Inverse folding.
């Protein structure tokens, strides 16, 4: 069950991208969701700093 402050989404990735996501998440000790969240937040910060 997803908590009230989270939203479940579905994405479609190529097998290669999905495999890379799995590999990177495992290497970093993160879930795939946590890794994607980290990347989005980092990108958002970088974008805001460029403004």
């Amino acid at each position: 069950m997803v908590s009230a402050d989270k939203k479940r989404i579905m994405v479609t990735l190529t097998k290669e991208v999905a495999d890379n996501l799995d590999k990177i998440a495992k290497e970093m000790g993160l879930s795939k969701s946590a890794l994607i969240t980290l990347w989005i937040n980092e990108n958002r910060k970088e974008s805001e700093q460029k403004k």
User: Anything to note?
Assistant: Residues 18-50 form one domain. The helical segments are 15-28, 32-50. Residues 25 and 35 are 6 Å apart (CA to CA).
